[in-house]
Design brief:
The chain has 264 residues and is mainly alpha-helical. The protein has 2 domains: 40-104, no CATH class; 106-262, no CATH class. The chain has helices spanning 2-24, 57-85, 140-146, 152-158, 179-190, 206-209, 220-231, 233-247, and strands at residues 45-47, 96-98, 251-254, 259-262. The chain has a two-stranded parallel sheet. Strands 3-4 form a two-stranded antiparallel sheet. It starts with a helix and ends with a strand.
Length: 264
């Protein structure tokens, strides 16, 4: 009985071994490969933290605001450069920059399209302060312009030859005011610092730009009228267009000074 059992086991093992050898002899195909999928990122989130120390609180805040403004502008330029180099994909790439409150521009709630902003509806401009100084001027037109950041600048430049007369009182002691006058006043104010004495863009101060010279007896309106009479409004527009082309990529809004500044 034991011999029969052992014989059966030996026969079964031999059968399995023979079958395995036959399977090993069958033809086989081995396939290997790699795959790589590339897609442009559709969102990037940046968080920026800047710290400045100084014995004087206002000085520290001013330095901090300037640094953050410069970093944000450079970051935006880098982001758009990267996006322009990224391969096309089914979704439009976008990038969000988390911006500290100290350098935020005007609220984007209820943004009025630039083309719908009516400079003739400026209202009355206070004789003191800049148009963007809320302590003196609360002008809806200015708020709407600042909601568009520096893109408001070419819009204002485009109106520097608009001779449409504005009805009603706009500026004290001015005999008449047209849309082009308002556009030039706003541009000049937007590039004047909080002291109202220094401009942040070379040569755009009212007296310097309009060539007052040494005659201090002229009013601001008379200085403008003399320049327009001599050169025409188109020259004012062309000079501002030249400034815009030269500085547009380096401009940022300084919330502390409430004016546009140029990155050094």
């Amino acid at each position: 009985m034991k011999r029969s059992t052992i014989l059966i086991v030996i026969l079964l093992c031999a059968a399995f071994s023979s079958s395995a050898q036959e399977i090993d002899k069958l033809p086989a195909i081995t396939v290997s490969g790699t795959a790589e999928v590339q897609i442009a990122p559709d969102e990037a989130v940046f968080s920026i933290d800047v710290t400045k120390t100084n014995k004087d609180l206002q000085t520290a805040k001013r330095l901090n605001d300037e640094s953050v403004g410069k970093i944000l502008e450079l970051t935006r330029r880098l982001i758009f450069h990267v996006i322009s180099l990224a391969p096309a994909c089914s979704r439009t790439p976008s990038a969000n920059v988390t911006q500290p409150s100290m350098v935020k521009q005007e609220s984007t709630a209820s943004v009025v399209p630039l083309s719908d902003i009516n400079l003739a509806a400026i209202g009355t401009i206070a004789p003191k302060g800049r148009v963007q100084d809320r302590d003196y001027n609360d002008l809806a037109v200015i708020t709407s312009l600042l909601q568009h950041g520096k893109e408001a600048i070419p819009y204002l430049i485009g109106n520097l030859d608009n001779a449409t007369k504005i009805e009603g009182h706009v500026i004290d002691y001015w005999l008449e005011v047209c849309v082009a006058d308002v556009a030039l006043i706003i541009l000049t104010n937007f590039f004047t610092d909080r002291s109202s004495q220094r401009t942040t863009l070379p040569g755009v101060g009212w007296d310097e730009f309009l060539e007052r010279g040494s005659n201090n007896n002229l009013t601001g309106e008379q200085v403008l009228r003399n320049y327009v009479s001599k050169h025409g409004r188109n020259v004012i527009k062309e000079r501002w267009q030249t400034l815009w082309r030269e500085y547009r990529d380096r401009l940022f809004w300084d919330q502390n000074e409430r004016c546009f500044r140029v990155i050094p």
